[in-house]
User: What shape does this take?
Amino acid sequence: MALLAALIWISALPAVYQVAAVTDNFVLHTSDGVPIGSAEFLEVLNQRMDALQMSTGVYLDSKADIYVVPDRSSYQSLARGKGAIVEFSNAFYSPAEKRIYIRSADQIWENYGGIIIHEYTHWYLDEILLSAPLWFHEGLATREGGQLGMDRYLYYVRERFWGNKMDLFELAYRYPSQRAEWEMYYLSSYFAVKHMRDKDPEAWRGFWTIVADNYRQGQKTRFTAAFGQAYGSSLYQFNLEFAAASKRQAWIYLIVGVNSIIFTLLPLLLILAALRRRKRMKALPELEIEPDPEPERKLNYIVEGSETGNSSEDKKDP
Assistant: This one.
């Protein structure tokens, strides 16, 4: 009994971490001091972080601390009390500790690098912005992590078509309470950031120019102020514009759905058309066709012993 209690107590202790790798953009910590993946994998992560900073024009001097949590119980201990969406996650960024926590690779089945980049984006935005809406965080992080995919896109336009929408202005600083709504929240956030970037590319660049200027002066930028200055609009007005744009986009679902039905039924339609054509052919009267007369045969007679091959009529008697 004492041994069991001791094992439970030991398992409840937080994991001890060691520095496993250091790059230009992050410091990797693991429980055994061994880096995750290969050197090429870490370099790709570093390059993707570089690409994010190049796209915004805001280059950081600091590095993100990434902790790879070795087992399920350790991760649950870290996530406990941080909300259901964190407890069900594979990784999270802790603003209080300024740390990224991610499960070990054996606990995550796919897109491990994308999940790290997702959380790095949260850390990055926290370093340069004040009071950025949650939808901006999640939208940009989902884009940088490469976590959309065609299946999620079709799910989004389908839900929008059937009237399922998210009020991002109301949910600017909190997640939906229902777990079933989390997926739609992430997708709505992604498309909100896409709309913000695509509707006015000049304003998008202006927004990041303001952020970059403030960062060079050692200051964080308040999101609403920079947004209003760059776009000349409020977040409430933006939410209304995005809702209207999403409603128009939802008709894509109807177009895709009709095309899918057509392509699904096309083989069956072709088979039915072939059977109908065969039925018509059988219904036609049979015509009696007289055989062609036998052609005349031409016989060539070769004179025996002749080298020229002339007929016997050409040969004269001596």
